[in-house]
Amino acid sequence: MRVFFEQLVNGVTVGSFYALVALGYSMVYGVMKLINFAHGDLFTLGSYLGYTFLVWGAAWITERAGLWWGVLGAILFAFLANAGAGILVERVAYRPVYRAGRLPLVVSALGMSIFLQNAIMAVWGPRFQVYPSDLVPVASLRFLGLSLPLLKVVILFLSLGVMFVMYWIVEKTEFGAAVRATALDREMATLLGIDVQRVILFVFTLGPALGGMAGVMNGMYYRSIQFSMGWNYGLKAFTATILGGIGNIPGAMVGGVLLGVIETLLAGYIPGGGAWKDGFTFLILILVLIFRPTGILGEKVAEKV
Amino acid sequence: MKSRRLVAFLFLSAVFFWGQVFAEEPIRIGLQAPITGSFAIEGQMARQCVEVAAELINEQGGILGRPVEIIVADDASNPRDSALAAQKLVSQGVVAAIASYGSSVTEPAADLYERNRVVCVAYGATAVRLTMGKERRYFFRTCGRDDSQGEFFARFAVETMGWRRIAIMHDNQTYGKGVAEETKKYLEPYIREGRAEIVYYDAITPGDQDYSAALTKLRESNPDVWYYTAYYPEAGLLVRQAREMGITVPFVGSNAVPNEDFVRIAGLEYVVGTFMTQEPLPQDLNTPKAQEFFAAYRAKYGDIPSSPWPIYAADALFALAQAIENAKSTKPDDIAQAMRTMENAEGITGPIVFTERGDRKGVPYAMYRYNEKGQLELFTP
């Protein structure tokens, strides 16, 4: 039983990373109907930016500010810098092809993914980079006989917090109504005087920013980062988004955590399951697409006529 | 051009003639190695090693009373140049070639030597398929095969360390799975005797970052030792995550684990005390041949080679010399036959004996351990 709980905690931890990445994915899809393939690489970019912040700010963190401020600083830095990167990507890769339809947009996103991956490799090198271990807090909590690293708890609550904030923005504010309206019918929204361009920009700013945040936390938690790691996270987050119901914010969160837990439990309990972890993930994707294409929290949407 | 060719021809035939008369025509042995390209340092060290070995042989009277001459060809560590280099050596009439570093580079050359009936001894090509794929009558290697590590680990774990409960983890890729399966195979006799037990045998997903699921399972199997048979990026993460989870079982990595990045990813504090199954590093070889060879090498180049692979190139020459001596002939068929049957060849890395397929028998492996400075140190229990 203890082992089961431990595996559960392991799964929730992995899942909360998937969820954070999935949030940005889902939002972009919701509004743009675009599978943003560059999202995973923006995640990588975020983890490299956080790494650079920690390395450059090492003296400031250890002498003046303390470790937790360093963590916060790195997260904020990656959040803001990635928001900027998101705006740039939108301007360069997406805006010129909006009118051309959905397929060119997807192709452009794929191209952006390849570009970002190679740019990261060119700037930081193809080797693994390792987050400096003396700059990441290692304290842990004891809870019901399990040892939980404090960082794990912080990551979990941070992603939950982010989800609530986003949910609140989209569901409760006037701007959120504009976002929802754009997601439903862009043309109609334009006719009603909604600044669709602003909504799109918002989505492309916040999505990558969240991805960047997830990237830093991922780097702090697992320490070693590499230029190509985003692709895998992108695929997992995509699966999580489908699982939870694409375009749905709580759905992305639920899907991410659920995917992490399922993956971990299957790997942990099926003999020889470790090698099949990614296989399980995509099996889930296929099953959901066949039997419940709207995902767990997705509602049936009437066909537009 | 023509006249220059004529001069060369006359010169060569003069040399040939002179050789005929004095019966001291050198025995030409080729060395194909990456003298340029991304593994240039390996190739250059191989050349130095083979040349020092040739000097030692010549000082002791040569082979069959004839001096050895080494002809070097550069394969730049790529398969295309490899075939060209092999062609070049063949057309220069070598009786045997030492070739090369890297399995995929060696393969096309091995085919070419095979077609031209020239004995080829690889020194840095460990892929199983080179000997176990299609049959080659003229191909040998002095280095180990990717799977012979498994045999070494099984023996070491059970007989030397007395570890009973053994956990084996791999990454489901050719190399990692190969070593894992061989380890399992060689543990079988011990399992039948009741001296060992495989309590965990599973693969992880390469490229992943979170291995807590696999590690929780590993911990519950309560092993005495944990053998990981794949590459360093995952190994680094595994070691760190395991130690952070409080798993203190001894970690043993296979020879693709130890390197600088492994230490960086796992963190020095967790790397200290981890074991590695690895070809013996040059500084830890102490056979009589090794002492003699390293003394000569040091006298010429100031230090001993820093990589284990060039040593196998020198051993290839020592093996060839002994085989030619045994065969009393420089005909490739006789040399190949002698290589298969000889039992008296002494190399720097110990006795050199080949199997029917051309693999080396009893390839030396050693157990290494990381010390406090993050360096590999020979482990003696």
Automatic annotation (TrEMBL), chain A:
Pfam families the UniProt entry points to: BPD_transp_2 (PF02653)
Residue ranges crossing the lipid bilayer per the database entry: 12-30, 42-61, 67-89, 101-124, 144-170, 199-222, 242-267, 279-298
GO biological process: D-alanine transmembrane transport; L-alanine transport; L-isoleucine import across plasma membrane
Topology with respect to the bilayer: Multi-pass membrane protein
Keyword Transmembrane on entry: yes
Compartments where located: Cell membrane
Record's keyword annotation contains Magnesium: no
GO CC terms of this entry: plasma membrane
Family: Belongs to the binding-protein-dependent transport system permease family. LivHM subfamily.
PANTHER family, alphabetized: BRANCHED-CHAIN AMINO ACID TRANSPORT SYSTEM PERMEASE PROTEIN LIVH, HIGH-AFFINITY BRANCHED-CHAIN AMINO ACID TRANSPORT SYSTEM PERMEASE PROTEIN LIVH
Protein name: Branched-chain amino acid ABC transporter permease
Source organism of the structure: Candidatus Caldatribacterium californiense
Biological classification of the source: Bacteria, Pseudomonadati, Atribacterota, Atribacteria, Atribacterales
